[in-house]
Amino acid sequence: METVRLDIENNCVVILDQTQLPGKEEYLNIRRIEDIYDAIYKLKVRGAPAIGVAAAMGIYVYANDINEEDTEIFLRKFSDGKKYLEASRPTARNLFWALERMEERAVENKELPVKNIKKVLCEEALKIQEEDIASCRKIGEYGLTLLKKNSGILTHCNAGALAASKYGTATAPIYIGNERGYNFKVFADETRPLLQGARLTAFELANEGIDVTLICDDMAGAVMKKGLIDAVIVGCDRVAANGDIANKIGTSMVAAAARRYKIPFYVCAPSSTIDLNTLEGKDIPIEERDGKEITHLWYEKPMAPEGIKTFNPAFDVTERDLITAIITEKGIFAPEKIKDALT
Ligand code: MRU
């Protein structure tokens, strides 16, 4: 399964529609920038690194369709497209990082004819994906050094192959450990309200033959108390300069429970997720989504009183004091030392 792919011949981004999983494996060929926006906004492609890759490929496909030979006008239209895609989701740093990187490449090459700038953009989008694959592999190798054979591991949301390239981030040590006979026992939180844990993590780990047990989010403390968890590993949408992190809603509750039961809490993030311009976790913009995701989605009939008030933040912030270490492709860092991953 390939989460995101650039089809150069047909100038489109091919996305595995994650809203259809695990029931249906459907690929979408996306060319219009409005459809790229829609795919990111509706979580057809989701997970911080995958959003970054999709945005880079999407802005390239859009730029390639700009029928303009005047570089200045081309760059202006490119910048409009970039701003538009940046509004698709607010929290994952990788979206902004990838789009900024693409724009820098375009501007650096503004002396070239437009057709050559387009070529540079195509190469850059592919490079962003290749780097993501390499980063995930390294995160997996570093992460594995922190884990013992036969460990119980709890994860929240989906920071797997569907959310990034190939190995995923939080799942990378699990996949590599599996190749090496580590015999992990994974517990996946179902992750209300969009069920990324049930629909995606349980699905992809079970497909790889990994021992995975699905639990409801409110069971995490109970499995920890029973002694079934040796480490918690989660992904991340943004790391602030001080080492606080934002990840899927519920992550901070898992971190608090892990602290209570003295279980190490690891966060996996490629350096593209680190944002030194965001000083602390409280400065990270948190996406709020439609309350119907709580009251209606997945139910055959509404399970909440008609018109009930809802609050539906998609992410929460885990403060650095609850984080044992942040695992990046550059190595393993104490949260307060995360700036070192960028030097
Ligand atoms: O709303 P989502 O599904 O995009 O949220 C995804 C997460 O919170 C992941 O844990 C995070 O993006 C890391 S993915 C490697």
Provide a short characterization of the protein structure.
The chain is α/β, with parallel strands linked by helices and 343 residues long. It is built from 10 helices and 14 strands. The protein has helices at residues 33-41, 48-64, 71-86, 93-108, 114-144, 172-179, 196-207, 220-225, 251-260, 292-295; strands at 4-7, 12-16, 27-30, 152-155, 185-189, 211-215, 231-234, 238-240, 245-248, 265-268, 274-275, 315-318, 325-328, 331-333.
Protein described:
- The protein has 343 residues and is α/β, with parallel strands linked by helices.
- It has 10 helices and 14 strands.
- It has helices at 33-41, 48-64, 71-86, 93-108, 114-144, 172-179, 196-207, 220-225, 251-260, 292-295; strands spanning 4-7, 12-16, 27-30, 152-155, 185-189, 211-215, 231-234, 238-240, 245-248, 265-268, 274-275, 315-318, 325-328, 331-333.
- The strands form 3 sheets. A 7-stranded mixed β-sheet has the order 6-5-4-7-10-13-14.
- Helix 2 (48-64) packs antiparallel against helix 5 and helix 5 crosses helix 6 (172-179).
- It is globular, with a radius of gyration of 20 Å.
- The model has no long low-confidence stretch (mean pLDDT 97).
- It binds 5-S-methyl-1-O-phosphono-5-thio-D-ribulose.
